Amino acid sequence: MAKSVTKDQLDSCLDRISDYFLQMNEDFSGATSSADGEKGMVPQPEAGDNSKFLRGDGTWATPPAGGTAYVISNTQPSDTSLIWIEPT
After folding, report:
1. How far apart are the C-alpha atoms of 39 and 24, rounded to whole Å?
2. Contact 65, 51 (CB under 8 A)
3. CA 82 to CA 77: how far, in whole Å?
4. I need a labelling partner for 9 at 20 to 30 A (CA). Which of 23, 29, 70, 81 fits?
5. DSSP summary character for residue 41
């Protein structure tokens, strides 16, 4: 049996969904040595950033030389695979 809802209940629900969507699409902010960052959408990488990783401070960076890089993927490595850098 279907439950009926009022227009006010529906509007309230849609407002909550909209607020949640907006919060989830706010910009990511990086952490500092003394402050937490904010969750959100990460900065868009530019052309040529495909071998960089996103640092905790919110910037794209080249992995340090001398470390070991591990590509974690269920299939073949790709630009969307998770890359873990272990410094030496």
Report:
1. 8
2. no
3. 9
4. 23
5. B
